[in-house]
Amino acid sequence: MTEGVWEAPGRVNLIGEHTDYNDGLVMPFALSRTVVATAARRDDGILRLHSADAPGGPVELRIDALAPGRGPRGWTDYPAGVLWALREAGHRVGGADLHYESTLPAGAGLSSSAALEVVTALAVTELYGVGLGRQEMALICRRAENAYAGAPTGIMDQTASACCAEGHALYLDTRDLSRRQIPFDPAAHGLVLLLIDTGVTHAHSAGAYGERRAGCESAAAALGLGSLREIPPEELPGALARLTDPVQRALTRHVVTENGRVERVRAALEAGRARAIGPLLTEGHASLRDDFAVSCPELDLAVRAALAAGALGARMTGGGFGGSAIALVEASARERVAGSVERAFAEASFRRPEIFAAAPAAGARRLS
Ligand code: GAF
């Protein structure tokens, strides 16, 4: 029996990378690619999870036995973690049947895990009549991801999936969780935002992401600060002069300059100057590649080839180590840029990338 159908989108981060666990600024937008959940309550305390994309049949878990590290490791950790985190927070949710179908590639840096968490939280809270605000829901989902699935991520992806609005990017200050919808409609400016999925999969729980996070925390501690957000862009030279470790210096430079880029992108978009964000995207890529060291040859090539073919700006998006890049292009240059990236990948003997236009779509919602 089905009681309802819900969907939650993946996200593209326009700018503000690796800042969300440094109390920093981010600006993602939602994709029209989503995870859809068909759901119904159960009265036997069982959580029954089934994904059209996962091999094997449904997985059944007792909700009162859910505990971090105890379940079968894999995709079911995300929805099971949401049930666990909701119950831990005192919300009265019980068993459920959840069937998922997704148009989001996993491991492409487009937040398929956050979409899976958010659609689960939305479906289960609505089924059980639990009133939960969208930001609170995103926090529950992050707890599922951090504590249950074991990935030490920030709050950006869950907030994007839960709170984005069509035609807008979401400006989020992760220090106080204040947020603002910023109009962003590339088509209205004669532009296209191309998404280039390199097909190289990444895994956040694998060490590199956690190492960057720990490196940022140790840099802040070395400076006697609670987080790198406390360094305003104009105080960066002074902070760098006080750090002796070259890795800490590079991580700090990225985070502080990236927060500055988010502000500049926001200001340009609010002034209706969409083309002006191009160079800021490209600057952000250089900083992630050279200072934060989270790019990879495929992402660098996607950016280089897009720029060489006339893109206004391009950068990797998401956590890095694979996944996707974005390129802002004149609508008239779309085929030329996409073709040039495909040719460059073929010449380098990289897997053929999947390239499509991404327009800011709606956040999570009930479909029926
Ligand atoms: C991943 C994480 F899940 C986010 O929290 C964020 O840190 C991002 O990488 C990098 O900006 O998507």
UniProtKB/TrEMBL annotation:
<keyword id="KW-0547">Nucleotide-binding</keyword>
<keyword id="KW-0479">Metal-binding</keyword>
<feature type="binding site">
    <location>
        <position position="209"/>
    </location>
    <ligand>
        <name>substrate</name>
    </ligand>
</feature>
<dbReference type="InterPro" id="IPR006203">
    <property type="entry name" value="GHMP_knse_ATP-bd_CS"/>
</dbReference>
<comment type="similarity">
    <text>Belongs to the GHMP kinase family. GalK subfamily.</text>
</comment>
<feature type="binding site">
    <location>
        <position position="113"/>
    </location>
    <ligand>
        <name>Mg(2+)</name>
    </ligand>
</feature>
<dbReference type="InterPro" id="IPR036554">
    <property type="entry name" value="GHMP_kinase_C_sf"/>
</dbReference>
<dbReference type="InterPro" id="IPR022963">
    <property type="entry name" value="Galactokinase_bac"/>
</dbReference>
<dbReference type="InterPro" id="IPR000705">
    <property type="entry name" value="Galactokinase"/>
</dbReference>
<keyword id="KW-0963">Cytoplasm</keyword>
<dbReference type="InterPro" id="IPR019741">
    <property type="entry name" value="Galactokinase_CS"/>
</dbReference>
<dbReference type="InterPro" id="IPR019539">
    <property type="entry name" value="GalKase_N"/>
</dbReference>
<feature type="site" description="Transition state stabilizer">
    <location>
        <position position="11"/>
    </location>
</feature>
<dbReference type="InterPro" id="IPR020568">
    <property type="entry name" value="Ribosomal_Su5_D2-typ_SF"/>
</dbReference>
<dbReference type="Pfam" id="PF08544">
    <property type="entry name" value="GHMP_kinases_C"/>
</dbReference>
<feature type="domain" description="Galactokinase N-terminal">
    <location>
        <begin position="4"/>
        <end position="40"/>
    </location>
</feature>
<dbReference type="InterPro" id="IPR013750">
    <property type="entry name" value="GHMP_kinase_C_dom"/>
</dbReference>
<comment type="function">
    <text>Catalyzes the transfer of the gamma-phosphate of ATP to D-galactose to form alpha-D-galactose-1-phosphate (Gal-1-P).</text>
</comment>
<dbReference type="Pfam" id="PF10509">
    <property type="entry name" value="GalKase_gal_bdg"/>
</dbReference>
<feature type="binding site">
    <location>
        <position position="51"/>
    </location>
    <ligand>
        <name>ATP</name>
    </ligand>
</feature>
<dbReference type="Pfam" id="PF00288">
    <property type="entry name" value="GHMP_kinases_N"/>
</dbReference>
<keyword id="KW-0067">ATP-binding</keyword>
<comment type="pathway">
    <text>Carbohydrate metabolism; galactose metabolism.</text>
</comment>
<keyword id="KW-0299">Galactose metabolism</keyword>
<protein>
    <recommendedName>
        <fullName>Galactokinase</fullName>
        <ecNumber>2.7.1.6</ecNumber>
    </recommendedName>
</protein>
<dbReference type="InterPro" id="IPR014721">
    <property type="entry name" value="Ribsml_uS5_D2-typ_fold_subgr"/>
</dbReference>
<feature type="binding site">
    <location>
        <begin position="107"/>
        <end position="113"/>
    </location>
    <ligand>
        <name>ATP</name>
    </ligand>
</feature>
<feature type="active site" description="Proton acceptor">
    <location>
        <position position="157"/>
    </location>
</feature>
<keyword id="KW-0119">Carbohydrate metabolism</keyword>
<keyword id="KW-0808">Transferase</keyword>
<feature type="domain" description="GHMP kinase C-terminal">
    <location>
        <begin position="266"/>
        <end position="345"/>
    </location>
</feature>
<dbReference type="GO" id="GO:0004335">
    <property type="term" value="F:galactokinase activity"/>
</dbReference>
<feature type="binding site">
    <location>
        <begin position="17"/>
        <end position="20"/>
    </location>
    <ligand>
        <name>substrate</name>
    </ligand>
</feature>
<dbReference type="InterPro" id="IPR006206">
    <property type="entry name" value="Mevalonate/galactokinase"/>
</dbReference>
<feature type="binding site">
    <location>
        <position position="145"/>
    </location>
    <ligand>
        <name>Mg(2+)</name>
    </ligand>
</feature>
<feature type="domain" description="GHMP kinase N-terminal">
    <location>
        <begin position="78"/>
        <end position="163"/>
    </location>
</feature>
<keyword id="KW-0460">Magnesium</keyword>
<keyword id="KW-0418">Kinase</keyword>
<dbReference type="InterPro" id="IPR006204">
    <property type="entry name" value="GHMP_kinase_N_dom"/>
</dbReference>
